[in-house]
């Protein structure tokens, strides 16, 4: 039974883990819990009660049997001794004959075991066993012989019996004989033996009922005690009582009716409860209305603060009727008065750390001195001060090292409200020696003026202005130098007006740390400003300042350096022979002086290569080799970095044929706007960026109608971190489709549509509208390979110049063409052609199919030839040779009158 109970109760019992883990063998009795022990004890008690009842019954029956035997034996003996004729029978000659039958009859009638009649000496006259007659009676006879009676228990021949001996008296009272009657106890107790099984059965039933009831009680007790043993429960309640009254939190248990069931010592102290508070209504304990209402309501709260006396108590309350528990609530009380003060100081420290962190990430977001100063002032207000101002030396704003003797300029100002009587942004300030700012600059340390109304040194700066500041409410000041190493770049002033308490020394430390972090960013911005200015100066010196004169294209351009640093974007317009014009745009990856210097080298190289009148693909090939050599030179000493990447697009436009040959090395493709406004991006093979080498560049030939606009640009216009190049090209297409105007207006419209607020990369943009040389401006002749043909050419040229009204140039032109045509016939190869172009200059061209190149030289006095090209060079502004796929062209230009 006990084993079954333990097994069935072990499953539902939710014993706390900590208590279960702390159970030890000595804490239980035979491994049983308190419920099991109670069950065993109750069963044992019931068994003892049943045994005691049976024993008592048996003893009672035996006692009653003995008493009944005494009473019956005495009654039978007295009755027989006083029966009529007993005295006569004793005096008869044969008492046995007379008395034996009567005694046996009386014995059977009275249901005793024997009736013995004796003489006064104790000799038997009668006995149930005749062989005992005449023998001495066994028992006590003296009292009876004296006239009394005797009742005694003896072990007789028939077993344990009770016998009574009474005298037989005659009429004179003389004892004439004795009568004894006896009965065995077994005979009297036979009924008790018959009742004992019923008694035992009843006791067994009672035991079963008691055991069942005990099992039910034990099961409930097992649930309530969670299977704990007595020692565990004792220890648990001892610990519970110790913890309850030793814990530094008040604990209060309130019943469902609002009665205070339990309050530990801390709760008594915190709430100032009376000693007899338990079992009283919460509202009768003298608590304030809010706290009493909360405790009586039983509502769930977490860290709800109540003012009880002079204490701030944080109250947590939960209900106890969860999972079938009793109705009511339990509340814990925590004195948070000191914690609030400590948390206030911790919160202030946290806010200061947070402000310093914000300074680390929020100051210096741009490499601009003014913007960095503004970020410092904006961060300080209103988190630290009500007004903040940053005053820097003018040299710092220009990127130079400051001069401590120079005046300061208010660079940034921030305040919680407008109208403060302080110096405005942009004003120049010279502080007097007694002013806190001047002392800060001179000593290089912060200065605290806790009460400005009592500071004569501060008032001496400007009596009227400082008086207005005091009336405005400004009452406390901290000045901190902006230090960058040994340099003092300026001073920062923090004012307080709204908060009544003045600045304290701890806040001076915070202000110094805040300005120190900002000073690093300001100095970095100053250094960048200097480097940026130098790089811009270098870059602008390397870029074309004005466009060269030419008649093939109407050109407008824009160049915008990046806000974050100067890059390597560049462009150029290069007049070529034959009225042609070369357009070039390039980009060197990176920023700073190195990129600008590399860009200058590439632009110079393009100028030199274009002088050779090379085809676009040949020129890009030479640039590719140049960049590779630059990389080798830069990395030879292991200090400088190679060119990270360079791109270039080179285009040559011929106004006579209206053809444009384009090649590009990793550069974005050009945009072409047709005269009808249609925009396309010609398919020009991209090629590899410059410096990679290994593959030749390819060209694309475009035929452009007059009035077409060719748009060249760098990737900064169409690509940045927020959009890819495809999106940028579509935006460029939309911008170009909306403009059908001059190149200047096209540049403006494109930048308005695509230019980001703060460009991260340089932007170079060229818009070139094409012109064409009409047939009336071009004259061509085929020349036979015959020296006599020179005269005919001279005559034809003279007539053409007359039609162009350029007769003043006839002599020199005929002389030039005579020399060039003669050289072509003598040293060249057919076919020979002559072409005159009337543009902004008069251009003479002689072409043949030979690749031999003429050279200018000084002829000796005795030489018959060698002076022709010398004369050409003297009579023209420019002359040269360009090679074509079919030979060469020798050209010369003369200015128009």
UniProtKB/TrEMBL annotation:
<keyword id="KW-1003">Cell membrane</keyword>
<feature type="domain" description="GAF">
    <location>
        <begin position="368"/>
        <end position="532"/>
    </location>
</feature>
<dbReference type="InterPro" id="IPR003594">
    <property type="entry name" value="HATPase_dom"/>
</dbReference>
<feature type="transmembrane region" description="Helical">
    <location>
        <begin position="34"/>
        <end position="59"/>
    </location>
</feature>
<keyword id="KW-0812">Transmembrane</keyword>
<keyword id="KW-0378">Hydrolase</keyword>
<dbReference type="InterPro" id="IPR036890">
    <property type="entry name" value="HATPase_C_sf"/>
</dbReference>
<dbReference type="InterPro" id="IPR001932">
    <property type="entry name" value="PPM-type_phosphatase-like_dom"/>
</dbReference>
<dbReference type="GO" id="GO:0016301">
    <property type="term" value="F:kinase activity"/>
</dbReference>
<feature type="compositionally biased region" description="Basic residues">
    <location>
        <begin position="13"/>
        <end position="22"/>
    </location>
</feature>
<dbReference type="Pfam" id="PF17203">
    <property type="entry name" value="sCache_3_2"/>
</dbReference>
<protein>
    <submittedName>
        <fullName>Histidine kinase</fullName>
    </submittedName>
</protein>
<dbReference type="InterPro" id="IPR029151">
    <property type="entry name" value="Sensor-like_sf"/>
</dbReference>
<dbReference type="Pfam" id="PF13581">
    <property type="entry name" value="HATPase_c_2"/>
</dbReference>
<dbReference type="Pfam" id="PF13185">
    <property type="entry name" value="GAF_2"/>
</dbReference>
<dbReference type="InterPro" id="IPR052016">
    <property type="entry name" value="Bact_Sigma-Reg"/>
</dbReference>
<keyword id="KW-1133">Transmembrane helix</keyword>
<dbReference type="InterPro" id="IPR029016">
    <property type="entry name" value="GAF-like_dom_sf"/>
</dbReference>
<dbReference type="Pfam" id="PF07228">
    <property type="entry name" value="SpoIIE"/>
</dbReference>
<dbReference type="InterPro" id="IPR003018">
    <property type="entry name" value="GAF"/>
</dbReference>
<feature type="domain" description="PPM-type phosphatase">
    <location>
        <begin position="550"/>
        <end position="770"/>
    </location>
</feature>
<feature type="region of interest" description="Disordered">
    <location>
        <begin position="1"/>
        <end position="26"/>
    </location>
</feature>
<keyword id="KW-0808">Transferase</keyword>
<dbReference type="InterPro" id="IPR036457">
    <property type="entry name" value="PPM-type-like_dom_sf"/>
</dbReference>
<dbReference type="GO" id="GO:0005886">
    <property type="term" value="C:plasma membrane"/>
</dbReference>
<keyword id="KW-0472">Membrane</keyword>
<dbReference type="InterPro" id="IPR033463">
    <property type="entry name" value="sCache_3"/>
</dbReference>
<dbReference type="GO" id="GO:0016791">
    <property type="term" value="F:phosphatase activity"/>
</dbReference>
<feature type="transmembrane region" description="Helical">
    <location>
        <begin position="196"/>
        <end position="217"/>
    </location>
</feature>
<feature type="compositionally biased region" description="Basic and acidic residues">
    <location>
        <begin position="1"/>
        <end position="12"/>
    </location>
</feature>
<keyword id="KW-0418">Kinase</keyword>
């Amino acid at each position: 039974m006990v084993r079954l109970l333990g097994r069935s109760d072990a499953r539902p019992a939710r014993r706390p883990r900590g208590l279960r883990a702390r159970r030890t063998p000595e804490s239980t009795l035979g491994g049983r819990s308190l419920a099991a022990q109670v069950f065993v004890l109750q069963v044992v008690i019931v068994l003892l009660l049943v045994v005691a009842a049976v024993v008592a019954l048996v003893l009672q029956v035996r006692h009653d049997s003995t008493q009944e035997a005494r009473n019956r034996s005495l009654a039978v003996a007295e009755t027989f001794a006083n029966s009529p004729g007993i005295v006569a029978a004793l005096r008869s000659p044969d008492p046995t004959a007379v008395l034996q039958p009567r005694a046996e009859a009386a014995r059977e009638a009275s249901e005793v075991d024997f009736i013995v009649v004796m003489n006064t000496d104790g000799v038997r006259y009668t006995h149930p066993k005749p062989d005992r007659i005449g023998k001495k009676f066994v028992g006590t006879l003296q009292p009876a012989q004296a006239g009394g009676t005797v009742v005694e228990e003896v072990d007789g021949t028939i077993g344990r019996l009770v016998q009574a001996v009474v005298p037989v008296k005659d009429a004179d009272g003389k004892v004439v004989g004795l009568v004894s009657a006896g009965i065995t106890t077994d005979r009297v107790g036979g009924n008790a033996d018959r009742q004992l099984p019923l008694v035992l059965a009843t006791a067994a039933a009672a035991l079963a009922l008691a055991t069942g009831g005990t099992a039910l009680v034990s099961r409930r007790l097992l649930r309530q005690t969670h299977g704990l043993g007595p020692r565990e429960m004792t220890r648990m309640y001892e610990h519970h009582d110790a913890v309850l009254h030793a814990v530094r939190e008040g604990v209060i248990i309130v019943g469902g009716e609002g009665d205070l069931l339990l309050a530990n010592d801390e709760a008594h102290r915190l709430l100032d409860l009376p000693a007899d508070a338990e079992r009283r209504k919460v509202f009768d304990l003298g608590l304030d209305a809010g706290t009493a209402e909360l405790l009586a309501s039983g509502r769930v709260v977490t860290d709800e603060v109540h003012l009880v006396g002079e204490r701030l108590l944080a109250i947590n309350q939960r209900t106890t009727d969860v999972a079938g528990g009793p109705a009511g609530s339990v509340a814990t009380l925590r004195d948070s008065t000191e914690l609030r003060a400590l948390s206030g100081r911790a919160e202030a420290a946290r806010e200061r750390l947070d402000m310093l962190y914000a300074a680390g990430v929020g100051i210096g977001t741009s490499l601009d001195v003014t913007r960095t100063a503004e970020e410092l002032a904006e961060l300080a207000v209103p988190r630290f001060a009500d007004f903040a101002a940053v005053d820097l030396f003018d040299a710092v704003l220009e990127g130079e090292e400051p001069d401590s003797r120079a005046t300061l300029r208010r660079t940034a100002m921030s305040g919680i409200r407008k109208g403060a009587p302080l110096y405005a942004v942009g004003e120049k300030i010279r502080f007097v020696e007694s002013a806190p700012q001047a002392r800060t600059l001179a000593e290089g340390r912060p200065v605290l003026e806790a009460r400005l109304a009592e500071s004569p040194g501060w008032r001496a700066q400007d009596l009227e202005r400082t008086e207005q500041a005091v009336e405005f409410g400004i009452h406390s000041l901290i000045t901190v130098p902006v230090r960058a190493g040994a340099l003092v770049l300026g001073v920062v002033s923090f004012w307080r007006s709204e908060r009544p308490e003045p600045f304290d020394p701890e806040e001076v430390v915070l202000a110094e740390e805040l300005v120190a972090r900002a000073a690093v960013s300001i100095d970095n911005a100053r250094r960048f400003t200097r480097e940026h200015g130098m790089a811009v100066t270098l870059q602008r010196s390397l870029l074309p300042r004005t466009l060269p004169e030419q008649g093939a294209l109407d050109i407008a351009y824009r160049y915008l350096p990046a806000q974050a640093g100067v890059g390597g974007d560049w462009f150029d317009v290069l007049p070529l022979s034959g009225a042609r014009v070369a357009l070039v745009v390039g980009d060197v990856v990176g920023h700073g002086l190195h990129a600008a210097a590399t860009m200058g080298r590439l632009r110079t190289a393009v100028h030199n290569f274009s002088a050779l009148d090379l085809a676009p693909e040949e020129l890009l090939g030479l640039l590719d080799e140049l960049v590779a050599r630059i990389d080798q030179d830069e990395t030879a000493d292991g200090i400088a970095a190679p060119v990270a990447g360079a791109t270039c697009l080179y285009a040559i436009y011929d106004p006579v044929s209206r053809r444009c040959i384009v090649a590009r090395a990793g550069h974005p493709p050009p945009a072409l706007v047709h005269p009808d406004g249609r925009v396309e991006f010609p398919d020009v093979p991209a090629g590899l960026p410059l410096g990679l080498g290994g593959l030749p560049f390819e060209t694309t030939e475009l035929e452009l109608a007059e009035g077409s606009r060719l748009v060249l640009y760098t990737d900064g216009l169409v690509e940045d971190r927020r959009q890819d190049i495809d999106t940028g090209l579509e935006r460029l297409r939309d911008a170009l489709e909306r403009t059908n105007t001059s190149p200047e207006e096209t540049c403006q419209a494109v930048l308005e549509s695509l230019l980001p607020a703060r460009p991260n990369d340089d932007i170079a943009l060229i818009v070139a509208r094409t012109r064409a040389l009409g047939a009336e401006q071009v004259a061509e002749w085929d020349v036979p390979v015959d020296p006599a043909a020179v005269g005919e050419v001279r005559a034809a040229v003279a007539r053409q110049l007359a039609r162009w009204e350029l007769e003043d140039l006839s002599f020199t032109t005929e002389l030039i063409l005579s020399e060039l045509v003669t050289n072509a016939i003598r040293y060249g190869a057919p076919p020979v052609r002559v072409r005159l172009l009337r543009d902004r200059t008069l251009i003479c061209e002689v072409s043949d199919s030979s690749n031999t190149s003429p050279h200018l030289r000084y002829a000796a006095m005795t030489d018959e030839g060698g002076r022709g090209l010398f004369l050409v060079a003297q009579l023209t502004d420019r002359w040269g040779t360009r090679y074509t796929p079919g030979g060469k062209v020798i050209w010369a230009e003369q200015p128009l009158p």
